[in-house]
Amino acid sequence: MKILMLNNEYPPFGGGTGIVNQEIIERLKNHSEFQIDLLTGNLDKHDSFLQLSPNVRIIRLGLNRKNIHHASHFELIRYALKAFIKANKLHRTENYDFSFGWSTIPAGVVSYLLFKLYKLPYLIRIGGTDIPGYEARYKTIYKIITPLIKRIWKRADLLISKCIREKGMVAAINPYLKIKIIGNGIDPEQFKPISKVKNKQLTLICPARLIKLKSQDLLIKAVARLKEKGIFLNLNLVGYGDEMENYTRLAQQLGVTKQVNYTGYVKRDQMITEYNRADILVMPSQNEGMSNALIEGMACGLPVLVSDVGGTEELVTNGENGYIFPVGDFEKLCNLLLEMVKSPERLKEMGEKSREIVIKLNWDNILYEYKTIFHNSFNNIKKQANL
Hints:
alpha/beta, Rossmann fold, six-stranded parallel β-sheet, 13 helices
């Protein structure tokens, strides 16, 4: 079967969606029954082409992106335009069986236009920000694009969400949509506990972009609060973003500059070292889908303290492998953190439970889920063609 995949982001830039896309592509290149073209973006203004294997090729469209971590609205529009033009030409020669958009906006826009032109069926994997109302900062934009999002979803053969909560949000908008949950995955041999020197002070790790959405300021304040109680913690902020200057200033104001460390951007294949330097993974995000970093940290045997967002309810059981606290609830965050650091003997036990939970999310199982929906879509298309 011939599949056209669409994703504006793909490593080395972008976020979790690109990582999942890459993990699936790297495994599908060994399955010759799938002929796949992926239309993604390039950091510079030039197009490029990579024949990843005899059955998989990656076509990068020059987007001249300014930031490797997130795209501007203009860059998303540019991708949609360039991807549609390229996809239109490719389909005339390749005659794809269906397309697969790794997001509703912008990839799903291209899939929808191809459907309108050629009746080409499509599947959509929903990103969190695709869901109207998901992020307060996009309130105005949602008013403009929600009718388009609804139309794209309605015409899709299948929608894929990462967790129960996202599925519920989508179903609340349209209860008649076909939605399947496929979570993110992990390579348990790549991310695993390794021997480490015991930290003199318990060390927290927050692996996330330094942006307001991730709320690392709560962690800096929590470190300061516990310091007032005579408990000294180290906080490793792994990532880079627009809030770095503000966080540095905040740490200085609160007198915890020496306790807050900034590693900057760390390549994914080097993250195992960062996870294994820590004792607890903390993520106070305002919004998440199913965090790749959370899964990776759990696979490395870390107990976790996370806000009540996205797929956390599927990954964290209170008191077993960590705790979940309400979004933005600083007092609850501090109290749970205090409870964890006062019982260091339990942290190892909780970390072992974390790894046990995510082992089932290995990429072989996730790949099986994707292969199944691809085969089902292909078979349904053939049946309809023979009617």
